[in-house]
Design a protein that fits this description.
heterodimer; A: 82 residues; mainly alpha; 78% helix; elongated; B: 194 residues; Rna Polymerase Sigma Factor, Chain: A; Arc Repressor Mutant, subunit A; 2 domains; 10 helices
C-alpha cells in the first residue's frame, strides 16, 4: 500500500534539484586521511606481532609457576601421610 | 555501478586497496554531501558528518561483509552520524537553555540550497523540504533524490518496508501541503501533482 510510483511528479521534481558542490580542497584532505587510515590498517598485523609475544610468554610463565606450586603441595602432602 | 563491479570493489576494500577507496569516494561523495546538507540544512555540519562517514568507512573496510551494498551502507552511516549529532546538540542546548533564554534568538537560516537555488520553483521546493520534520525529509531524500528503492531506504532508516512506505506517503503529502504554504507551487508542478 501507499507505494509511490517512480514517475510520481513530486518525486521527479525532487530528483531534478541540483546536487551540492563539494569543496575539492576539503575532499582531498579527507581522502588523504582515509588513505593514511587504510595504510595503517595494512601495516596492522606486523606491528601487533611484537605485543603478542610477551603476552604468550606471560601465559606460559604463569602456567609453569602453577605447576611447580601444585607439585610442591603434592610433595608436602605425600610427606604428611607417609 | 553494476552489482558485479560493486562486489569486486568491496573485495578490494576488504584488502585495504586505496584505489578502490578512491573509486567509491568518487561515486558517492557528492551524493552523500547532498544528502547530509539537505538533512542537516547546514553546509559546515554536512562536511563534518561526511568526513566522519568516510573515516568510519575506512576503519570498517576490512570487516565489510562480502555482499555489502555500498549505497545502503554509506547512507546508513551518514544518517546515523546526523542523528547522533542531533542528540549531542540537543544535550548541549538543554544545558545552555537557561543562559540562552536571555539571548535574542536569530531568525532560522535558509538552507544552503535555498540560497543558491537557480529558480523560484527550486527555491520553493528547497524551502518546503527544509521545513519538513527530519524523519519525513530523510525518506524523500533517499527515495526521491538518491533513487534508493523503498526496501533499501527502509534498511537505511532502520524501519520495516511497510513503515517506510507509509512514511514516504505521509512525507509526500506533507511536502505538497508545505509547497502550497510557501507561496504556492508553479502551475506546471501543480498540474503535474494532481
Amino acid at each position: 500500500m501507499n507505494d509511490l510510483p517512480s514517475n510520481d511528479p513530486l518525486l521527479l521534481s525532487l530528483r531534478r534539484l541540483p546536487p551540492a558542490e563539494p569543496d575539492s580542497w576539503y575532499d582531498d584532505r579527507v581522502r588523504q586521511q582515509c588513505h593514511a587510515a587504510l595504510a595503517a590498517r595494512r601495516r596492522g598485523p606486523s606491528s601487533r606481532w611484537p605485543r603478542l609475544v610477551p603476552r604468550r610468554f606471560e601465559t606460559v610463565l604463569v602456567g609453569a609457576f602453577g605447576l611447580v606450586y601444585l607439585a610442591a603441595i603434592l610433595y608436602d602432602a605425600s610427606h604428611v601421610y607417609r | 555501478m553494476d552489482r558485479e563491479s560493486e562486489l569486486a570493489l568491496v573485495e578490494r576494500l576488504r584488502a585495504g586497496d586505496a584505489a578502490a577507496f578512491d573509486e567509491v569516494h568518487a561515486a558517492f561523495n557528492t551524493r552523500l554531501l547532498t544528502f547530509l546538507a539537505r538533512l542537516s540544512r547546514r553546509r559546515d555540519v554536512a562536511e563534518d558528518l561526511l568526513e566522519e562517514t568516510w573515516l568510519r568507512f575506512v576503519r570498517k573496510a576490512d570487516s565489510l561483509d562480502p555482499g555489502t551494498t555500498l549505497a545502503a551502507w554509506l547512507f546508513t552511516v551518514a544518517r546515523n552520524r546526523y542523528f547522533s549529532y542531533c542528540r549531542s546538540r540537543a544535550l548541549d542546548e538543554s544545558h545552555a537553555a537557561d543562559l540562552l533564554a536571555l539571548w535574542p534568538s536569530p531568525a532560522p537560516l535558509a538552507s544552503p540550497f535555498e540560497q543558491t537555488a537557480a529558480s523560484q520553483s527550486e527555491r520553493r521546493i528547497e524551502a518546503a523540504l527544509a521545513d519538513l520534520p527530519a524523519a519525513y525529509r530523510e525518506v524523500l531524500l533517499l527515495v526521491g533524490i538518491e533513487g534508493l528503492t523503498p526496501a533499501e531506504a527502509a534498511r537505511v532508516c532502520g524501519v520495516s518496508a511497510e513503515t517506510l512506505r507509509q512514511r514516504l506517503h505521509r512525507a509526500r503529502t506533507l511536502l505538497a501541503r508545505r509547497l502550497d504554504q510557501h507561496g504556492g507551487v508553479n502551475i506546471a508542478l501543480r498540474e503535474a501533482m494532481t
